[in-house]
Design a protein that fits this description.
Elements (H helix, E strand, L loop, with lengths): L2 H13 L2 H12 L2 H19 L4 H15 L4 H22 L4 H16 L3 H19 L4 H16 L3 H15 L11 H22 L2
Helix pairs in contact: 2-3, 2-4, 3-4, 4-5, 4-6, 5-6, 6-7, 7-8, 8-9, 8-10, 9-10
Length: 210
């Protein structure tokens, strides 16, 4: 098989949904350095095809950055952050700050800092994500509830229990509000309520210990 045919089949593979699944599985069963070779190969193919400053390249950088972050190794998280920062730079240039693709990449960057246990940075980014999602979709949108729930977890890890409870309560309000109308038995509602109860118990124990 000649070089052009190899390139063609590689490009078709990268374009397919199978590629993200392959990257995700590979990142768990191989050394992180091997997974990173695949990520870089994919981005290289897109750069050669579309140019560095392209929304299509930004989409791939966002996808492989997200995939790289799933392994949680330091090397993969660092590379994920580089890829996602480049992706958001390109997307901001063409789409502006109030676009769904921009906020999705911002959310992925926040997730990297969460996995890196840099909670203060994650908190600020998730707060921005929640504000932008509320601006784009409305304050009762499911994505706002999901972000509020994640912020509840971040505040809990920061031992800021009042803000943790505030964001869990906001998530519950949206999940069970007029837009989503989830039942009390819905897994999302049950999970947030359990998290809220756990934080309330921590606060109660702290008060009783004084």
């Amino acid at each position: 098989m000649n070089r052009m045919m190899v390139y063609y089949f590689m490009f078709e593979f990268v374009e397919s949904d199978l590629f993200n699944t392959f990257l995700h599985d590979h990142s768990y069963v191989q050394e992180s350095s091997e997974a990173l070779k695949l990520y870089k190969m994919a981005v290289s193919i897109y750069r050669d095809t579309y140019g560095d400053d392209s929304l299509i390249v930004a989409r791939m950088l966002n996808q492989v950055g997200l995939s790289a972050s799933l392994s949680h190794s330091t090397e993969n998280l660092d590379w994920a952050l580089l890829a996602l920062k480049e992706a958001i730079h390109i997307r901001l240039k063409y789409l502006g700050p109030h676009h769904v693709d921009v906020v999705d990449t911002m959310n992925n960057i926040a997730g990297v800092f969460l996995h890196k246990r840099e909670m203060e940075v994650a908190k600020e980014l998730y707060a921005d994500v929640m504000l932008v999602r509320a601006y784009i979709f409305g304050k009762d949108h499911p994505s706002v509830a999901v972000t509020a729930q994640t912020l509840g977890k971040v505040y809990t890890r920061l031992s800021d229990f009042q803000n943790a409870m505030k964001h869990y309560e906001l998530a519950l309000e949206i999940y069970q509000g007029e837009v989503m109308k989830l039942a009390s038995s819905h897994p999302l509602v049950v999970k947030v309520r359990d998290e809220l109860v756990r934080v309330e118990r921590i606060v109660m124990v702290g008060r009783n210990a004084r």
